[in-house]
Design goal:
The chain has about 400 residues and is an alpha/beta fold. The protein contains 14 helices and 15 strands. The protein has helices at about 5-10, 30-45, 50-55, 55-70, 85-90, 110-125, 140-150, 170-180, 200, 270-285, 285-305, 330-340, 355-360, 375-390, and strands at about 20, 80, 100-105, 125-130, 155-160, 185, 205-210, 220-225, 245-250, 250-255, 310, 320-325, 345, 345-350, 365-370. The strands form four sheets. Strands 2-8-7-6-5-3-4 form a seven-stranded mixed β-sheet, sandwiched between helices. The structure holds pyridoxal-5'-phosphate (PLP).
C-alpha cells in the first residue's frame, strides 16, 4: 500500500508555510489532530471543563484503545502522560532497585534517561554498565548477552537515539532480556509513529513514547505501556486519588490497570489530539510510513554527501528518518538560523543530549534534519539548494 502524499500534505496546513525537517523535534500536525484539540478547548470554554470531560468520555476511552492497537497491547496496559520523560520516569522510578543492582544500557542513551541512572546511582547505590557498540554503532549484542548472564536488574534501551538515524536491534535486546529474566524498559520516543512497534515482538516490560514527534500529535502528550504481568513489579512513585482509592483512614488501594501511573488532572484536549494522531497514522499504515521515511532519509543522506563541506554523521546498519550532519565551515546553529530565514526547519543535536556517543565520536553540535512521510523529494532538493547557497 502506498501513501497518498498529496492528500497527506493537503491534510497538513503547515506544509503550505514551511519546509519542515524537524519531525524528530515535533512534527506538523494534520488537520484532524488540530480539530480534535481545538474543538475540545472550545467545548470546555462553552460548557465547562468537567462537563466537557463527561461529554467526551467515550472518545477519551478510545484513545487508550488506539494506543493499544498501535503497540499490539491491551487497553489496561496503557497510561497517558504529559511527555515521554514523565512516562519513562514513572516506570523507572517504580523499579525497586537496591544497592549494587546493575542497570545495563548503551552508548546512545538519551540524556534524561542517563541522568536518572546517575541520580539513582547517587540515591540508591545502583551500578550503571554501558554496553559497547558494534562496528556500525548499534549495541553489541554479544556483549549485552554476556552482561545479562552475569545478572542485572534492568536493561534500558533507547530504540532510536535523538542524535541520528541509528535503529537499535530492540527485538534482539528483548530476547536477551526475556531469556535472562531481566526487566526491559524501552525508550521508543523517536520510534512511535515511524516504525512498527509490537510489544509482543519487542518483549519489553515497559515502553515510553511521546505524541508530538513521529506520531504528529500535540505537544505535552506522551504515554507509557506496562505489561500486565509486570504492573505489580513496579512501585507507585506518586499515588493520588486517580491512581489509587482512599478506602479508610489508614489505607488506600492502587487501581489494577496502568492508569495507576497517571494523575487525576490531565490535558484532555491534548489527549484527544493524541488519539486522533494515532488513528490517522494507523489509517495510513505504519509499515508504509516506515518505508517512505526510510527512503526519503536515504535520499537526503546521498544528496547531502554530494556537498563537499558536509559530513553526514548517522550510524547504523538499519537507519530511520533522522539525518544528522556537520559542515566544515559553518556551525550548526548558523545553519539552522539561516535555513529558518528561508522557512526551512531543522534542529540542533547538542553533544549533551547523547554525551557518551558524542564524546566517543568527538561530535560537535550537529544539524538534525528529520524527515517524515509527508515530506517530498522536491523538498529535499530545495533543502540542499538552500544549503549550497549558505555554504
Ligand atoms: C530518544 C528520546 N527519548 C526521550 C525524549 C524525551 O521526550 P519528551 O521531551 O517528550 O519528554 C526524547 C526527546 O527528544 C528523545 O529523543
Amino acid at each position: 500500500m502506498s501513501i497518498d502524499i498529496q492528500r497527506a500534505r493537503t491534510d497538513t496546513p503547515g506544509c503550505h508555510h514551511v519546509l519542515h525537517f524537524n519531525n524528530a523535534g515535533a512534527s506538523l500536525m494534520p488537520q484532524t489532530v488540530i480539530d480534535a484539540y481545538t474543538e475540545h478547548i472550545a467545548l470546555e470554554a462553552q460548557i465547562g471543563g468537567y462537563e466537557a470531560a463527561d461529554a467526551v468520555r467515550d472518545r477519551h476511552d478510545a484513545v487508550y484503545a488506539s494506543l493499544a492497537r498501535l503497540l499490539g497491547a491491551h487497553v489496561d496496559e496503557i497510561a497517558l502522560t504529559d511527555s515521554a520523560t514523565r512516562a519513562w520516569n514513572m516506570a523507572f522510578y517504580g523499579l525497586d532497585l537496591k544497592p549494587g543492582d546493575r542497570i545495563l544500557t548503551t552508548q546512545v542513551s538519551y540524556a534524561a534517561d542517563f541522568i536518572a541512572f546517575l541520580h539513582r546511582r547517587k540515591t540508591s547505590g545502583v551500578q550503571v554498565k554501558v554496553i559497547p557498540s558494534d562496528d556500525q554503532g548499534a549495541v553489541d549484542l554479544t556483549a549485552l548477552d554476556k552482561a545479562a548472564r552475569e545478572g542485572a536488574a534492568l536493561i534500558a534501551l533507547t530504540h532510536v537515539p535523538t542524535n541520528g538515524g541509528l535503529v537499535q536491534p530492540a527485538e534482539e535486546v528483548g530476547q536477551i532480556a526475556r531469556g535472562a529474566g531481566i526487566p526491559y524498559l524501552l525508550d521508543a520516543c523517536q520510534t512511535a509513529g515511524q516504525l512498527p512497534l509490537s510489544v509482543a515482538h519487542l518483549q519489553c516490560d515497559m515502553l515510553s513514547a511521546t505524541g508530538r514527534k513521529y506520531l504528529r500529535g500535540p505537544r505535552g502528550t506522551g504515554f507509557l505501556y506496562v505489561r500486565r504481568e509486570f504492573l505489580d513489579r513496579l512501585q507507585m512513585p506518586t499515588p493520588d486519588l486517580h491512581s489509587a482509592r482512599w478506602v479508610d483512614r489508614d489505607s488506600y488501594e492502587i487501581r489494577d490497570d496502568a492508569k495507576r501511573f497517571e494523575l487525576w488532572e490531565s490535558n484532555l484536549a491534548g489527549e484527544l489530539g493524541l488519539g486522533a494522531a494515532v488513528d490517522y497514522a494507523l489509517r495510513i499504515g505504519i509499515q508504509p510510513i516506515r518505508d517512505r521515511v526510510r527512503t526519503l532519509a536515504e535520499t537526503l543522506r546521498v544528496r547531502l554527501a554530494e556537498i563537499s563541506a558536509v559530513r553526514v554523521r548517522d550510524l547504523g546498519r538499519v537507519k530511520c528518518g533522522i539525518v544528522t550532519f556537520t559542515h566544515d565551515d559553518l556551525d550548526a546553529r548558523t545553519i539552522r538560523d539561516r535555513l529558518r530565514e528561508d522557512r526551512i526547519n531543522v534542529s540542533i543535536s547538542d553533544p549533551e543530549s547523547t554525551l557518551l556517543d558524542a564524546t566517543r565520536r568527538g561530535l560537535p553540535p550537529m544539524v538534525r534534519a528529520s524527515v517524515h512521510y509527508y515530506n517530498t523529494d522536491e523538498e529535499i532538493e530545495r533543502f540542499c539548494e538552500a544549503l549550497h547557497r549558505i555554504s
